[in-house]
DNA sequence: AAATATACCTGACTGC
DNA sequence: TGCAGTCAGGTATATT
């Protein structure tokens, strides 16, 4: 499922094929995503040249003259570059056809993703109020420490809160807490400053490492070249309930925190 | 302000 | 074999 490393992996994969290309056509087979795709997307995008492919949090930003296309992959979405003539499959909802003869094809079985234009109100509401990028210097020990002084919620929920830091989803939250030795249910404001420092650097390391591995593929996720991500092989706790901890051998447990499965090692995490 | 619950959606899996 | 039920999860929204 796409978290920040998967979105960044996708961005890097598609950018060279998109930048400086002109969008000749947009084909919407199913507009019913998280929010319906606007019929006006056609007029906003067609015949425009793509200037840059960026990312903010888990949003892909396709910049053209006059604004940008904002794509979210939701839970099960992926984008890839295919020949525009290639027959679409069942959940291939949108094509962005380029003058190279290729197209950016969006696939999303669960349709939790979205395609919005930057001038749409929904898009603007989504992008404001986002916390800092985890891999930027804005996300640092001091910021993090002060930000969560008032938060009594479990630390796991807090690091998954977009207003605190963006891009940390369920998988990487579980892994970061394991590698920092912090129990996922511990109140955020009761984690010592020393351990917040550790957690801050661990989050950065885990996300960076996952990006170099091409993301984590569980079921749906594929990179833009159609290959899976390889970070799954490096997971310590996520999806390993009932198995032995790789560090100490204790059985990995699963807790539900905020309606989310949360795997952890009872011995390594306090 | 923060915590909690609910909704959206389909595929994979389980149990009868 | 098939059907019904459950689960997974990002994130907006409404409610407490």
Question: What's the quick description here?
Answer:
The chain is α+β, with helices and mostly antiparallel strands. Helices cover 26% and strands 21% of the residues.
Could you walk me through the main structural features you see in this protein, from its secondary elements to its overall organization?
A hairpin with a 2-residue loop joins strand 2 and strand 3 (about 60-65). The protein is built from seven helices and ten strands. The longest helix has 20 residues, at about 195-210. About 45% of the residues are buried. A four-stranded antiparallel sheet has the order 1-6-7-5. The chain has a four-stranded antiparallel sheet with strand order 2-3-4-8, sandwiched between helices. Helix content is about 25%, strand content about 20%. The chain is of the alpha+beta class. The protein starts with a helix and ends in a 6-residue tail after the last strand. The model has no long low-confidence stretch (mean pLDDT about 90). The protein binds a DNA duplex (16 and 16 nucleotides) through loops.
List its traits.
DNA-binding; alpha+beta; 10 strands; 270 residues
């Amino acid at each position: 499922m796409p978290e920040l490393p998967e979105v960044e992996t996708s961005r890097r994969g598609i950018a060279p094929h998109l930048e400086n290309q002109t969008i000749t056509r947009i084909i919407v087979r199913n507009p019913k995503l998280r929010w319906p795709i606007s019929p006006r997307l056609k007029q906003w995008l067609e015949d425009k040249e793509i200037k840059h492919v960026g990312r903010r949090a888990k949003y892909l930003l396709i910049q053209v003259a006059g604004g940008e296309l904002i794509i979210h992959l939701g839970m099960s979405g992926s984008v890839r570059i295919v020949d525009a003539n290639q027959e679409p499959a069942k959940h291939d909802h949108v094509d962005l056809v380029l003058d190279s003869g290729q197209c950016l094809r969006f696939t999303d079985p669960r349709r939790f993703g979205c395609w919005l234009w930057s001038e749409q109100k929904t898009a603007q509401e989504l992008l404001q109020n986002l916390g800092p990028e985890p891999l930027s210097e804005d996300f640092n020990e001091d910021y993090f420490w002060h930000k969560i002084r008032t938060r009594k919620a479990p630390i796991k929920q807090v690091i998954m809160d977009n207003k605190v830091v963006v891009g940390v989803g369920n998988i990487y939250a579980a892994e970061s807490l394991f590698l920092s030795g912090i129990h996922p249910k511990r109140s955020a404001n009761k984690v010592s400053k020393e351990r917040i420092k550790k957690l801050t650097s661990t989050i950065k390391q885990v996300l960076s490492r996952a990006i170099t591995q091409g993301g984590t593929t569980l079921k749906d996720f594929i990179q833009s070249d159609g290959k899976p991500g390889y970070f799954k092989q490096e997971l310590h706790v996520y999806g390993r309930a009932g198995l032995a901890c790789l560090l100490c051998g204790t059985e990995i447990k699963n807790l539900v925190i905020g309606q989310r499965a949360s795997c952890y090692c009872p011995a390594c995490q306090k």
